[in-house]
Amino acid sequence: MKVTLLKYTKGGTDLIAHSARVSGVPDTIPDDEIVRMIVDNDYSSALEHISFTFDLEDISIALSRELLEHRMASHTARSTRYVEEEAFGYFTPKEFLKNEEALKVYTDTMEYIKKAYANLREIGVTRESTRYILPLATHTNYIWTANARSLINFLGLRLCVRAAPEIRELAKMVYEEVVNIYPEIFKNLGCRGINLSVCPENAVRDSVQGKDCPYKIKGTKGFIPTKDDVRVRKDW
Q1: Residue 85 has what pLDDT?
Q2: DSSP characters for 33-63?
Q3: Once rounded to an integer, what is the mean pLDDT over residues 163-173?
Q4: Helix (H) or strand (E) holding 150
Q5: Which of 97, 144, 161, 215 has the fewest CB atoms below 10 angstroms from its CB?
Q6: CA pair distance 160, 163, nearest whole angstrom
Q7: From CA 197, how far away is CA 160, in angstroms rounded?
Q8: What's the pTM?
Q9: pLDDT tens, position by position, 79-97
Q10: What separation in angstroms does the CA of 80 have from each of 30, 73, 85, 101, 128?
Q11: pLDDT at position 219, please?
């Protein structure tokens, strides 16, 4: 996987501050303080005025489906209808890398599909039909544009330890790109537990996917309570 930032809104701090002043924020407050106030208090409509466009190379089709769940963004993917995929690359989950026998089954299956794709094309089947045998692991390329507000939402969801490993890795790479450009927006962001000071995952934080969460052990430094921990429970 490779993440390249193609373009972003320059002068974003000034633009956010100007937008906030239109809605009533006093002129006496410096631009950087306005941005921090907006992010900290989630007064975030002004953040929609700045955007980022990324080239996402060699992500899996499975990951691209998860990206589509983030609808406040623009998506353009490589077309399997018009691009030959006979030599497709593919994502290998770490679980297979830890099991030699499983890895062999996985890689053998991928090589079989490659041969099947080539055979179908040789006997005259169109790309449009042949593409249906491609697995979810198949690499694709994506151009992805999102505004700062949507990126905060994306990062909060996908930096969580319970996020699927591939998209969590993508979120880390996207974060490294944007925090270098606008630290005043992104510097202190992480999963939703960090962003909200309360984790909305509740009991599922104790699931298998959440076993590595560093914020769930009560009494330890950095503990973040769940919504169930802080809200008043009532019998309905």
Answers
A1: 96
A2: HHHHHHHHHT-GGGGGG-EEEEEEEEEEHHH
A3: 97
A4: helix 148-158
A5: 97
A6: 5
A7: 13
A8: 0.92
A9: 999 999 999 999 999 999 9
A10: 49, 21, 7, 31, 7
A11: 84
